[in-house]
Amino acid sequence: MSVRDEIPPGTLHMLILRTLSRRGEMHGFEIANSIQQISGEVLQVEEGSLYPALQRVLIMGWVTAKWGVTTGNRRARYYKLTRAGRNQLESELAQYRRVSDAILRVIEST
Amino acid sequence: MWLDELWRRLRIMTRRREFEADLEEEMRLHLDLRAEDSSDPWAARRRFGNTTQIKEASREMWTIGSSLGAIWQDAKYGLRSLARTRGFAMLAVLTLALGIGSSVAVFSVVNTILLAPLPYPQADRMVIPWVIPPKYSAFAYDVFPWSPRQFRILRTLSIFDPFGAFKGGTFNLTGQGDPVSLKGVRVSYGFFPAVGISPALGRWFTAEEDQPGRDNEVMLSDRLWRERFSADPAILGRSIDLDGQPHTVIGVMPAGFAFPHAEEMPDFFDLPKEAQVWVPLAVPPAPLKPEPSELAAVARLRAGVTPKQAQAAMDADFTARLEREFPQYKGFFNTKLTPLATQMTAQARTPLLLILGAVALVLLIASANVANLLLARSLVRKREFALRAALGAGSGRLMRQVLTESLVLALAGGVAGLAVGQAGIQLMKALGPGNLTHLQEVTLDARVFAFGLAVSLVTGILFGLAPAIGAARSELAESLKESGSRTGGSASRTRLRSLLVIGEVALALVLVIAAGLLTRTFIEMLRTNPGFRPEHVLTFELTLPALKYPDQTRMARVYMNAMDRLRSEPGIEAAGLAQVVPMGGSPDSTTFRVIGRPLPPKQAEQPYGAYTVATPGFFAALGVPILRGRDLAATDTADSTRVVVINTSMALKFFGGEDPIGKQMDFANNSFPPMTVVGIVGDVKQESLGESPMPRMYAPVTQKTWTPLQTMQVALRTRDDPSVAAGYAREAIRSVDPQLPVSKLRTMAAVVDDSLARPRFAMVLVGAFGVFALALASIGTYGVVSYFVRQRTREIGVRMALGAGRADVLGMVVGEGVRLAGIGVALGIGAALAATPLMARFLYGVRPADPVTFIGLAALLIAITLAACFIPARRAMRLDPNIALREE
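Output (structure tokens, whole complex):
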């Protein structure tokens, strides 16, 4: 089993939005799996934080949800990014890059 | 943006069930999918964590920033948990209902009487101007009436527009069925424009009609117009006979118009409770003869004039001017402008504020009691809260839960309180003094409802705060470790409960002491020697038609004849009349001079006393003892020596220890012939059984008098039931002159009883609140002491096992009760000592710090709290040490 790290607080909803922006409609389990796979199994998505975070982005109007059917023929709630969600994602990504670049520069300066 | 968000939140809230189901299903799917992924389904479940907590956390997301949904949820939860503990809920709601209900009832009275808008246009511009006496003087009133001379100056002042004067009057209506005595008001022509109410029919008086000789017009009240003139629409221009003189009806005032009202003005004006006629005042342009000061005034401030400017103008143009003219009376011309609203509520304000204060105390005690109940309950619920905390509820969440439950409780109490308030209003209407203006109009209106709601919310927060903070602070691990049946409270919470009970006992003591003082006042009033014997006395009022009896000689003759005629009735032992019988009104008062003794130059220091005109037999009829000398007699005629009878107070106060009989006195400031003192009578309570004795003099109706004689009050001492005498007394008066109207026919006992209505009202109301407070305080003590016993069950068991007797256990439990009650009583006595001087003006015959009342009621309170300790103490004594020890 590989080492798994907790997702830093406050970044989970950004990851959700990013995942949705790449793949279109997904349900909760797919979102969690997707984040884990893409991160190379480093980031572990706690279900305990996933669903509250999903409720939050839903309320903020960044995503919409509607019931659909999975490939395994099960009812599942599919989330989809809204225009507001895309704008939010872009501004948060820009800010995140700025900050992480800055942190990198500080860490790696000799 | 935020609007969209709000809308989404609202949508989630309104379709809550659906969203919960969605979340549930979504999470189940997640779990299933993970289980399929994994070899060990239980590991998947473990990984998923606490589903309840996730749901709770997800739900929190919906409600951040808009906790309406959560509050509704809390409220529902609260209702359910209250329904489970019905006994607790009923006790709490009942306590609150009584507390809130009595506040609502009292507030609705205050609302109607003190806060109701005045029925006059732009009433905030209306003022009642007064002369105020010098500060150092000891007059019974804090305002004085105006003299006609002063009125002539006032009406020229430009600050007023318009300005009107008025005084009470009695008019005999004849030629319209039985002769009837009408209560009315004489008003100057500025009066109606100043009041600002137009007649329903006709017009106001003109300036020309307000002159001596031209003043034969009259305006009728709506009720008189309907009852005496069958609402005749053609009444205008008709002539009616008032005091034997034709008066032209020029207007009818609208129904409900009742200005001025006797209860809203000082009682020396003798204004009607409900005026039936208004007649021109007709002050002559220049003084013709000595004019008594007997005018009241009403005015509007001219547009743009502030009250401050108006007062400044009064000081400059009135006070300064008169002080220049009469330097010897400097200090007697100061004025004040009382806003109409203040004037109209002045008489009712203080007693209502007293009752409002009492009811506020009751509400505080009720809140403390419910807080105590909630604290006790929160101990029982400690595990419930600990469990919820373990499941992830934050401390804010728990606090909100407890507060919401308190509010649910308070609102339930408030709803029940409105019902109690309605009952209380009915009770007050039934018990209230008839002369408390507008009492009968009191209802529960929107403002009272709003007040009830506000009181409920405030009390809910007040008594819910302590348990809420307790819930938020509850320590999780410790609470969970405790078992269910044994619930120990933290030391701080026990202290809080004790403090609440101490506060309740202290407040209850303040209230019962106030009630006790009012009760003693009432008893003292009943026990006091009024100076006369009201049993077997009948009284009524006679008013002479001015035209038929134009001068004093004729008036005196008919009065003397009427008294002789009454005395000839076999059922009548004694008969006499005077301007006012005791409790029938206030006589005129005057400064005077004892001839041969120096007169102090300052008017305020001169001898001062009441002056009443009477006939022989008046004292005998009332049972007033003649202590020295003789009664007024039929032989005191216009030609014989002018005589006067004085009372004990006057004899003791102004004659320097000498025998007053044979001494002469006169009115220092006008040319009135001196009178010789021929008798001394006992002091009589004149205006209230609660007054202190005042110097009084009585002059015969048959000699020249200083005051008008048109209206007199008769006192008859009858051999049997005075109400039986009413018939032949009326007959006797009719045989003297069929045109004389007999009014206010009542037994003296009823008159005295009426004068007690106000103190009785205050006593009953505050007394009821006091009893209620006592009950609440004893329930509170009972709760805390029971809790004390439960908490110490094991300790008591140990003690008993080690040989402690039942008496020791009893001592321990009762000792706890005594400790609480003792501290409460000590604090209460301190608070009462500070508070009771405020009610000094309601007291008679008892000091505000009356030791008997204080000690007696403190002892009573301690006894009651001890009785409340008895049940838990008995439980403690009966404990079986074996069982007690086994308790955890």
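The first strand of chain A starts at residue 5 and ends at 6.
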